[in-house]
Amino acid sequence: MFTPAPGRGRVLRMLRAQGGLETRLALRNAEQVLLTLLIPAALLAGLTLVPAVPAPEPRVAWLFASMLALAVMSSAFTSQAIALGFDRRYGALRRLAATALPRWLLVCGRLAAVAAVVVIQVVLLGVLAALLGWSPAGARLDGAVLAVLLGAAAFGALGILLGGTLRAEIVLAVANLVWFALLLAGGIVVPVADLPGPLAALAPWLPSGALAEALRSALGAGEFPPAGPLLVLTGWAVVAGVAASRLVRWT
Known about the structure:
Blueprint: H1 11-28, H2 30-49, H3 59-89, H4 92-97, H5 103-131, H6 141-163, H7 168-185, H8 197-202, H9 207-220, H10 227-247
Helix pairs in contact: 1-5, 2-3, 2-5, 3-5, 3-6, 3-7, 3-9, 5-6, 5-10, 6-9, 6-10, 9-10
Membrane topology: Multi-pass membrane protein
Subcellular location: Membrane
Protein name: ABC transporter permease
């Protein structure tokens, strides 16, 4: 006799299914691919070949670290926030609410998709940087991997928190505004030491400044990132992750 046995699936199976779905959707979106891959790659090549922004030598290593931080922010924060905001608007999350998928697993599924996209970004930007003259020989790759993971977690949780709590139109405006603000004044393109007084004091406490400084230490100076930037990223990831798991709304 066939006996129905309804119930929630295994957690890892649900996470794998949700993370795979989110990754495929992100890679199929041309606007997100432009934001997360093409813009950082174009800035890396352009600013390396044309010294429009002052940077210490080796220039390509410093810019590679900066553009990798920009790529992580673009995919984990901006793209995730906008995608989640419009998923809520069009009712996609309402349909997910009818399944056994808990809210915290939705957050983890989005973060898993961010991790998959970040891996692609690291590979592509690393190949481009190598073509421009960067060598991984003196870099602390272990420190860079740790910084990227913490940065993706921090920005991913912030993106989910933003996209899961505000209206889609507001999310679109705020996410893009924050992206430009952090790019120019958050310690990514302009070093923290070269920012004006108030911004120079604030930038190290922002996830953008902490991630950029950690990656510059690992990829540019060849040193393991200091504890300060890593702790800042961890704090942002924990606080934003807990808030997102509790405050994200399905509609």
